[in-house]
Structure formats: C-alpha cells, structure tokens
Write a structure and sequence with these properties.
CATH topology of the largest domain: Rossmann fold
CATH class of the largest domain: Alpha Beta
Strand content: 15-25%
Helix content: 25-40%
Largest sheet: 9 strands, mixed
Shape: elongated
Strand order of the largest sheet: 6-5-4-7-8-9-10-11-12
Distance between the termini: 108 Å
Number of strands: 12
CATH superfamily of the largest domain: Cell division protein FtsQ/DivIB
Length: 254
Amino acid sequence: MKKLNVKTVFNTVGGLGLAALALFLIFSSAKSDAVRRCEKVIVRIEDDDRQLLVKKDDVEKWVTRQGSDPLVGKTLESIDLKKLEKRVENSGIIRDCQAYLDLKGNLILDVEVYKPVARILANSRFPDRYMDEKGHFFPVSKNFTPTVLLLSGEFFRDKKGLESPKNKDLLDMINTITADEFWKAQITRMDIDRHKEILMEPLLGENIIEFGKPEKVQARLEKLMVFYKKILPQDPWSNFKYVSVKYDGQIVCK
C-alpha cells in the first residue's frame, strides 16, 4: 500500500481551505452589497486646482441626472458603475470618468476634463466650441472662459473635430503656436477658409497676417519673427495693414 505524503495532504487541504474562504468572501460581499447602501458621492477632478471649466457640483448633477436619480441611499448592488461613467462622459466636456466603490460604501468618481487650446467661434451650424490638443471639439463651459486662440472661417462650418489625418497639418500648426510662449500671446485669432488658407490677427496692431496653408510652418514663423525684430522697428506699426509670409524667400508688407 502506497504511503501517503503528509506534506501533499496538508497542501491539498490548505488549498481547498483557501478556495472555500475565497468563495465565502465572494458570497459574503455579494450579500453585503445587496443590503449596504451608498454613503456618499466623492468627486475627484484631475488638476482641480488649475482647471476652472468643471466644478464638482456639475459632475454630481450629471451623474444623478440633475438630481432625478439620487445615488446616496441606494444599495451598492443596484449601482451600475459603467452607466454612471457614461452619464458623466456624455456631458461632452469630460475626457474620462472612472467610477468605483470603496470599502466604506462611498461612490468615487475620478474625472479628467478636456483641456482647451483653442476656441472655435460659432457659425450657422454650430455654437462656440473648444478644441483640445488632439483636435477634439467639446462644449464651452458656463463656469469659466479661458483665454485661448480663436478659430473661425468657412473651414469649420461642417467640422466636428480635427482628429482626421487630413487635418493633421492644421492641428500641428495650432499646437505649435499654442505651445510657444511668444506666439501664443501674439496670435489671437486664425481665420481659415474652405481651401485651408489662413489669415492671422496679432494682439498688437490692426494688420492682417497672410500665412497661407498650414505648411512650412517653422520657416514662415521665422520669417514673421524677422518682420517683428527687423522690419517693424524701422516704421510705425500703422504703416502696415497687411503682412504676408506665404511666399518662399520673401516678406510682403503693405
């Protein structure tokens, strides 16, 4: 008769015991969630000390459907976390929402807000909208109006975003301008026609800058810098109503 290995027996019994304990905890948790209720809704917004577009009250209204579906007091079992995440994200201004329950019965909402780099001005089809660095358009905020680059023109009449590869050239140019301290301050508005030809308005002066299509961006910005550093100081600003850096090898001032 084969002798039993005591170590093997203990390992087997121990493994079965752990499995039983795990099953017990799972069923206990499920039973507990069926009777435990949501104690509190806690909203945590990423970079909350820097962003002003969304307030915690806004998130609470979205997640409860303006208070028509209160969560405090609901059994934990009845709370659909994925549905709540979708409610918050459907506001249009939230990039991401992660919902979960902690051991105290609190509903935690970790929220990331879209960060605007530009504002698309209203046209006949759409109201004012913001755009983030990836080209995503999202609604303006009732809480705060950040100072960002303004975008207008026929090009945006039917646009719902600039995420498409065919718009990468324009998006890259916008990000180049908004990432540079000088150009971000100096260029206040870009008007873009249906052919993607760009006119820019500077902060100082009443002149118009003809940039052309969003190509050779660095070279054209360097030419524009030559205008500011070498040409402009020689004549009063009022002498120039039009500056073009569209054409290779020249700066046209009128």
